[in-house]
From TrEMBL:
Domain spans labelled Glyoxalase-like: 18-130
Listed SUPFAM superfamilies: Glyoxalase/Bleomycin resistance protein/Dihydroxybiphenyl dioxygenase
Entry protein name: Glyoxalase/bleomycin resistance/dioxygenase family protein
Species of provenance: Nocardioides fonticola
A Pfam family annotated for this UniProt entry: Glyoxalase_6
Transmembrane residue ranges: none
InterPro entries for this protein: Glyas_Bleomycin-R_OHBP_Dase, Glyoxalase_6
Amino acid sequence: MPSTTPPPTRPALVGLAVYAVDLDRLVAFYRGVLDLAEVERGPGFVTLADTSCELSVVAIPAEIAARLTVGSPPRLQEDAALKPVFVVASLAEAAVRAAELGGGTRDQDSAWTFRGLRRLDGFDPEGNVVQFAEVV
């Protein structure tokens, strides 16, 4: 049975932390695809935000990062327990920007609509699976 509850009008999540092998590359990806501003930078982290989303990209400690291989294209982390959903102005534009910045999305034909948002799965340059969504 389809849901009749409207999508939330306020964010249910204050923020999200993403751990990175390559801090600057992931910052460039999320800043570029999600159009977020850098609001804080410190040793080993950068926080990006707008009025509805706060994303902290945190460097994985060097001794651990040295043992990790990202690959090109990255191996998708599809076995993760969480998949963040980011609202964007345009799925088509997000797909282009994601590819330009080392990530990607599934084909536009695989997008679907659920709870007032058209959704498309994608991934960042380190293979973290994300979902982009636009208001319909």
